[in-house]
Structures are given as structure tokens and as C-alpha cells.
């Protein structure tokens, strides 16, 4: 015990270098745990976005691509699915429910998704949780819109608000559907998924917006008013993708086979859970690389600490000689120096944890709004404890290096003071 | 005469179209050593679909050329029919094999002599009394058909969808996390 207090006092004496060492260890610990946290939480958040959907149907491309654009609103579709094909598939005897999705427009940087009211009935996220409204109800009219919670919160929208939807997905758009404003009729409760950042409107609404458009821009000299458009045929010609729920899981592979070999149109049906796993397998390499980098940063931190202590040993020969003269044994000296290193690591780890949580508190809302990722502030997971344990073990091991060095110095020097 | 030519042409075209519709097989990945297992559970029913290149099962992918090859195919089909031997389900679940269908292009006499790949397809349906007890499936395919080195499994259960890779060393499929 007196050795520990001696070690701490000696550290306090060199508080400037010691605090820098402490900081480097703390930063490396925060990085190691931060990378791990981010990896885990992004997985969870992805896995929680869709639940209860048996198949996702889109134009033939890659399964991961289809998953990303249809569920996570990342990237774009290569092609559309014709309304006819969608109708045929939706009426397949094994299909219980289907949700068509039409993407491509935006509102002030938020994606606009065209769908049907079935979406609010059948869509499930996390573990079989249904969408709920904080206020209002699903859209019923052509020019009704339902907002995700983030959209309403960030733009300060209330029920009854008129919004104008822009063509394309950019933050600044040249073309706006300003002759057909939509009215907010519902705001969804927060889900922690990309849904919170989506504006939902009916498929007929999407069709009405584009009825006087051709080739991606408004037809000159032809403006069909919002009112007039409602009297026209607003059956969509195509959709971006569709989510399917089946009567029985057993028929999943059969329906998938049927869709993948649908003769009139090249379509792709994917199992969302399996596609998500394919995505992890791909990301696994990058994740391992990140983890390896943070492990190396920790090693650099530890090496830095050992270097600092070793260089200070020469300066502290006088201190050790004095300690020896008042009865300290070489083992005591060794314990003193190693103890110093260990307490640096312990303090550094604690500081690193504090730093991590402080950063999470600050960055959490930012990450959530920017990337739709919800990073939880829970206690460290068992895996994180294992990482910390390994780190402490490694620290203990390297702290022996200056300890042994000091032991040998004090044996050789004895009580003579070398300057 | 001209009309006749026209008609023949039309008939040929229709036949062709028809053949296309019947023959339209998916170009699923066909990789020797690999086989696909699709497993779905709903209620008391457990369905397992196996699809493997014929190379893994009998060692060749053409229609049988002699009596030995013919016998090899017959024997492979018989082994594959025996679903109980291929998959050991948790005994506590009390599962019964209700259906076992085995099909291979090699058995169809009509199959043209082509250099194309050929597959074995099998479908098994089990009825389980207590699904809650069904924890794992021990897959004996690796032992019975050494040509199968890797199984790509797609698993659909109440707990969601999963993809698992199994090998001879890891032939036990855990159904619950």
C-alpha cells in the first residue's frame, strides 16, 4: 500500500508527462471500444430495420443492392418493376400481403417513398413491432403525406402543414412539384430506423406529381392542376420494389423461385435476412481491419508509456538510491516502477471509458440524424469487457519491462547516487 | 405450298417457345463440392430442400452410359430417399418424415445427351410434434456423399432468416441462437 501511494506521489511529481501518457492510453482505449461499439450498434440497427418480411422483390440486380435501396434507402435502383408484374406477384396464392414501394423523389433532403396504406398495417421492425402514429393517421387522399419522426422534428412540421416535394434525391433540386403540394396527415413514432427519415405518400400521389412530366422534367406548356390530376387514371406504371409477406414460410423458396424465373420480366426476389448476412460477410473484412487498427493504436499507446517510463528511469536513479538508503529493497523499487505503469494503464482505461461515453453523448444525435444509426449508451458488453481485460493483461505484461530494468539498476547502483 | 411452309414455320416456332417455357431452368450457381440446403419451418412443419450438382453425389453429370453408372444413380436416389438417415433432428421434437421426393435430370431418359451440368434435387417434409424442442439438425450428407464438401444453408424459422455454411467438420445446424 505505501508503495502504491509512493508511486502515485511520484507520478504526481511528473504530472505533465504522466498526463500526456495517460491521455494517449485513454484515447487508444476510447478508439478500441468506440470501433467495437459502432460495429455492434450498426449491425443491430440494420437488423432491426426490417422484420416479418419474407421476400423483397425488385428489378434483377444484386441481392445486397436491392436490400440497401429498398429497405435502407441507400443507393438507387437499376430498374423498376412493372405494375403488371407486381400485380401478378401480389395475387400469387402464396402471398398474404404485399407492400409496393416507389422511390426517387425527396423533400428537403429526406427521401419520399410512395406506397399504399398497407404499409402501416404490415410493416414490422425490430422484433415484430408495428408502426405507430404519434399524431394523425395513415394517408387517405392523393395529396396526403405521413412523416417519419425525424422529418417532423427537424423541419418542425405539424399536422396540416403543406409540403412541396422535389424531383430527385438531392438536397437542392432544380425541379420541384410545386403545383401539387401535399398535406401532412400523420406523424409516425420514432423507430430508430431509416423510416424516421422518410416522407410517405400514396402511390397515386407519386403518379399525380409526374402526370404532366416527361423524361424527368415538366413538359413545357402543359400543366395539369392538382385538382384535375385527381380525375385522371393514377394507376402507377411501375414501382421500385415490393415487400412480400407469405401465408407460410414453407412456401418462401417456391415463391422466390417463381419470381426469379418470372418469364415476362427479369426480377429478383431476395430473403432480407439472408441478404443482410451476405452484407455482414462482406463488411466483415473491413470491420476486422478497423479492429486491427485500433488494437495497434492501443499497442502504440502502451509502447509510448513504456518509453516514457524507461527514459525517466535514468533521471530517477537518485530517487531510487534515496529509497534504497531508507530501506527499500530492489523488489520494492521494481514494484514501484511497475505499479506506476499499471496505475497509468488503469487510470488511462477509466479515462478512456469516460471519454468514450462523453463522445457518444455528444455524437449520438449527430450520428443518428446523419446516418440513421442509433448508438446505445448501455454498459460495456461482455465482449468489450474481454477487450478491456486483454488490454489490462497486456499492460501488466509491458509494465514489467521498466520494473525489471529498475530492479537491475537498483541492484547495480546500490545506494550510490549517479547523476 | 407457300402456306404449308408458313404453317410449318409457325408450328416449329410454337414448339420452340413451348420447349423454352418447360426447359426454363434457373442458372443457379453450380459449383462442384458445394450443395444448397433450404430449410423452412412453420408451425409443426419442417421442410428441407437439397440441391446438389450430380458430380457430388455420383461422380459424373451425364446420362448413365453403362450398367454401373445406372446402378450408381439408382443407389444414390435410394440413399437420398431415406430422409431419416440424412437428417437427425432433436429427438425431443418427435419429428416424422412425411414426404421425400428425389429427382435428378440423370434419370430422365428423355434428357438429351448434352455436356450441361446436372443436379440432384430432393425435398423432405417433416411433421414435428413439439417444434419448441427442435434445437438442431445433424446433417449426415457429408458422410454419405464425400463429394459434398460444403453446404450453403438458408434457414427460415420463427426467429428470422439466416444463412449458414456447414462443412464435414461442422455438420451440426443450430436452429436456435
How many strand units of chain A? 17
Helicity range of chain A: 40-55%
Strand order of the largest sheet of chain B: 4-5-2-1-7-8
* N to C succession of SSEs of chain B: HEEHHHEEEEHEEE
What shape does the CA trace of chain B take?
A: globular
Mean pLDDT of chain A: 87
Q: In angstroms, what is the radius of gyration of chain A? A: 31 Å
How much strand content do the residues of chain B show?
35-45%
What does this protein structure show overall?
The complex is a heterodimer of chains A (419) and B (177). Chain A is α+β, with helices and mostly antiparallel strands. Chain A folds into two domains: 2-46 and 283-413, no CATH class; 55-270, no CATH class. Chain A is 53% helix and 17% strand. Chain A is elongated and about 100 Å long. Chain B is α+β, with helices and mostly antiparallel strands and 177 residues long. In chain B, strands 4-5-2-1-7-8 form a six-stranded mixed beta sheet. In chain B, strands 3-6-9 form a three-stranded antiparallel beta sheet. Chain B is globular and about 50 Å long. At the A-B interface, helix 9 and helix 10 of A face strand 1, strand 2, strand 7 and strand 8 of B.
Amino acid at each position: 500500500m505505501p508503495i502504491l501511494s509512493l508511486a502515485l506521489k511520484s507520478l504526481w511529481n511528473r504530472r505533465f508527462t504522466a498526463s500526456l501518457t495517460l491521455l494517449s492510453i485513454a484515447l487508444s482505449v476510447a478508439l478500441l471500444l468506440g470501433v467495437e461499439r459502432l460495429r455492434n450498434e450498426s449491425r443491430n440497427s440494420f437488423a432491426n430495420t426490417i422484420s416479418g418480411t419474407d421476400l423483397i422483390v425488385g428489378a434483377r440486380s444484386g441481392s445486397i443492392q436491392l436490400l440497401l435501396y429498398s429497405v435502407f434507402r441507400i443507393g438507387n435502383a437499376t430498374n423498376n418493376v412493372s405494375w403488371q408484374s407486381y400485380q401478378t406477384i401480389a395475387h400469387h396464392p402464396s402471398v398474404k400481403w404485399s407492400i409496393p414501394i416507389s422511390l426517387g423523389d425527396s423533400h428537403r433532403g429526406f427521401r419520399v417513398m410512395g406506397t399504399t396504406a398497407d404499409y402501416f398495417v404490415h410493416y414490422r421492425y425490430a422484433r415484430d413491432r408495428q408502426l405507430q402514429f404519434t399524431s394523425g393517421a395513415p394517408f387517405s387522399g392523393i395529396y396526403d403525406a405521413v412523416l417519419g419522426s425525424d422529418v417532423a422534428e427537424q423541419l418542425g412540421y405539424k399536422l396540416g402543414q403543406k409540403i412541396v416535394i422535389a424531383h430527385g434525391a438531392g438536397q437542392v433540386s432544380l425541379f420541384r412539384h410545386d403545383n401539387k403540394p401535399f398535406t401532412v396527415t400523420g406523424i409516425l413514432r420514432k423507430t430508430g430506423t431509416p423510416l424516421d427519415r422518410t416522407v410517405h405518400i400514396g402511390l397515386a400521389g407519386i403518379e399525380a406529381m409526374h402526370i404532366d412530366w416527361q423524361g424527368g422534367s415538366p413538359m413545357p406548356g402543359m400543366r395539369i392542376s392538382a385538382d384535375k390530376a385527381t380525375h385522371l387514371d393514377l394507376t402507377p406504371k411501375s414501382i421500385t420494389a415490393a415487400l412480400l409477406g407469405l401465408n407460410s414460410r414453407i412456401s418462401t423458396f417456391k415463391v422466390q423461385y417463381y419470381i426469379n424465373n418470372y418469364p415476362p420480366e427479369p426480377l429478383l426476389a431476395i430473403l432480407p435476412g439472408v441478404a443482410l448476412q451476405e452484407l455482414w460477410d462482406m463488411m466483415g473484412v473491413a470491420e476486422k481491419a478497423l479492429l486491427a487498427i485500433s488494437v495497434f493504436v492501443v499497442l502504440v499507446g502502451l509502447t509510448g508509456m513504456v518509453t516514457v517510463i524507461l527514459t525517466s528511469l535514468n533521471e530517477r536513479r537518485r530517487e531510487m538510491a534515496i529509497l534504497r538508503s531508507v530501506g527499500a529493497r530492489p523488489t520494492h523499487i521494481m514494484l514501484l516502477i511497475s505499479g506506476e505503469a499499471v496505475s497509468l494503464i488503469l487510470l488511462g482505461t477509466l479515462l478512456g471509458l469516460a471519454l468514450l461515453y462523453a463522445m457518444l453523448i455528444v455524437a449520438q444525435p449527430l450520428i443518428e440524424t446523419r446516418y440513421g444509426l442509433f448508438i446505445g449508451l448501455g454498459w460495456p458488453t461482455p465482449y468489450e469487457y474481454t477487450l478491456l481485460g486483454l488490454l489490462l493483461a497486456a499492460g501488466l505484461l509491458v509494465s514489467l519491462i521498466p520494473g525489471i530494468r529498475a530492479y537491475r539498476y537498483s541492484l547495480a547502483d546500490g545506494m550510490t547516487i549517479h547523476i | 405450298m407457300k402456306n404449308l411452309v408458313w404453317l410449318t414455320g409457325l408450328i416449329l416456332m410454337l414448339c420452340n417457345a413451348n420447349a423454352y417455357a418447360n426447359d426454363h431452368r434457373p442458372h443457379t450457381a453450380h459449383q462442384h463440392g458445394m450443395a444448397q440446403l433450404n430449410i423452412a419451418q412453420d408451425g409443426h412443419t419442417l421442410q428441407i430442400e437439397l440441391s446438389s450438382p450430380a458430380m457430388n453425389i455420383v461422380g459424373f453429370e451425364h446420362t448413365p452410359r453403362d450398367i454401373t453408372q445406372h446402378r450408381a444413380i439408382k443407389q444414390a436416389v435410394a440413399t437420398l430417399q431415406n430422409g431419416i438417415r440424412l437428417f437427425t433432428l432433436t429427438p425431443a421434437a418427435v419429428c416424422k418424415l412425411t414426404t421425400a421426393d428425389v429427382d435428378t435430370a440423370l434419370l430422365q431418359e428423355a434428357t438429351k445427351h448434352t455436356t450441361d451440368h446436372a443436379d440432384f434435387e430432393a425435398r423432405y417434409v417433416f411433421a414435428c410434434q413439439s417444434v419448441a424442442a427442435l434445437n438442431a439438425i445433424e446433417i449426415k450428407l457429408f458422410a454419405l456423399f464425400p463429394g459434398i464438401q460444403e453446404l450453403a444453408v438458408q434457414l427460415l424459422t420463427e426467429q428470422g432468416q439466416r444463412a449458414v455454411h456447414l462443412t464435414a467438420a461442422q455438420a451440426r445446424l443450430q436452429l436456435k441462437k
